Amino acid sequence: MPYAHITGWGMSVPEPVLTNDDLAKIVDTNDQWIRERTGIRERRIARDTDFPSTLGTAAALKALEVANLKPTDVDLIICATSTPEHIFPATACLIQDQLGATKAGAFDLLAACSGFIYGLNMAAQSIRSGAIKNAIVIGTETLSRFVDWEDRNTCILFGDGAGAFVLQASDQPGGVLAAVMHSDGSGGNLLTLPAGGSRHPATEATIREGQHYIYMDGKEVFRFATKVMASSTEEVLKLAGLTKEDISVIIPHQANLRIIDAAARGLKLPIEKFIINVDRYGNTSTASIPIAAVEGIEKGRVKKGDKVVFVGFGAGLTWGALVAEWTGPLPSPRKVNMGRYRLWGRVRSLLHRFERFLEGIIWGRKA
Ligand code: ACO
């Protein structure tokens, strides 16, 4: 049975920075309150030209570059997102097109902030079954488009961005070692985007009542999060036959510094074992774990052979954890020119659209 190794990583965040002081000009809040209650100092906000697919594609290209893997060799693209561009088509398909990943299957995965862990597990299972060889898992969000900028309970928390991992099959032991996934839909009402789906399609009333914005019962979510972060970490370690002492670093979902603190206390581990960057990006939902991972790798905190735990929670309610032995790029004979593939991906996409247009003229537009 092949092993599923994490061989590439990349992130992309929009340039505009929104600080706590900027927020204090919009709603009744202040920098001290936000820092003390959440640990957040600033977050990135998507420009009009940033979308989950464009941010996700940029992150995925960087991950492919690290892995030195051609987009055309990717078998599967899983895009975990809480803010898809459309209900359909899947954002994963838009990314597939922008990457020029011509042979990949692509789908979106909705498990809110736990989505990246769920996605990694699904991709790893597909590789371990022998069904595929190469996968990209992306977490990408533009939460700022669903935030009520008049609601100080939520607008201080969220930010935009994307992160991606490449997973590849190898006979060498290592890679993803174990994962656990959990859910409890009885808490679905605690964190929700009430309208815009098939239960409450957009109407004048849903817009008037602000039902297209994120609703959250912060206290309940906080209580739930502090419980499951430690328990799912312990559970996944047990499943992998490891102990806390075997773990070099924990990369948690970046929702609130106090939640990460509580997890560290629950696990009786020093906070230094955790990679934390919630101060600079806020909660970027599915993107938070890969963004923290990329920054951790770049700072030398994650090295080949390290055992790393990813752990998160989110709307659903969902939660989960995954433990991996860190690999890095697999040996490959020659350097892939990613710029060329990017250009060719764009040209190919235009050609396909033109081909469809011509077919429409030749065969007629009617069915
Ligand atoms: N600025 C100033 N004061 C504020 C603000 C603000 N931005 N927000 C709330 N307050 C006030 C409240 O009105 C309240 O005032 P009161 O005591 O006069 O009523 C006081 O501050 C305390 O409010 P609490 O809600 O009790 O504050 P708490 O310490 O619980 O912190 C927070 C709120 C930060 C939202 C916290 O509950 C939390 O982080 N919860 C978890 C959220 C989370 O992780 N969500 C993401 C899940 S992942 C996903 O799927 C997207």
Explain the overall architecture:
By secondary structure, the chain is of the alpha/beta class. It has a single domain (3-325), classed as Thiolase/Chalcone synthase (Peroxisomal Thiolase, Chain A, domain 1), CATH 3.40.47.10. The protein is built from 11 helices and 13 strands. The protein has helices at 20-24, 31-38, 52-67, 91-99, 115-128, 204-208, 218-240, 257-267, 278-281, 288-298, 338-363, and strands at residues 3-12, 17-19, 42-44, 76-80, 105-109, 134-141, 161-170, 175-183, 191-192, 215-216, 249-252, 307-314, 318-325. The longest helix is centred in the C-terminal third of the chain and has 26 residues, at 338-363. Residues 29, 33-34, 37-38, 112-113, 152-153, 156, 191, 216, 218-219, 221-222, 225, 255-256, 283, 285, 314-315 line the site of acetyl coenzyme *A.
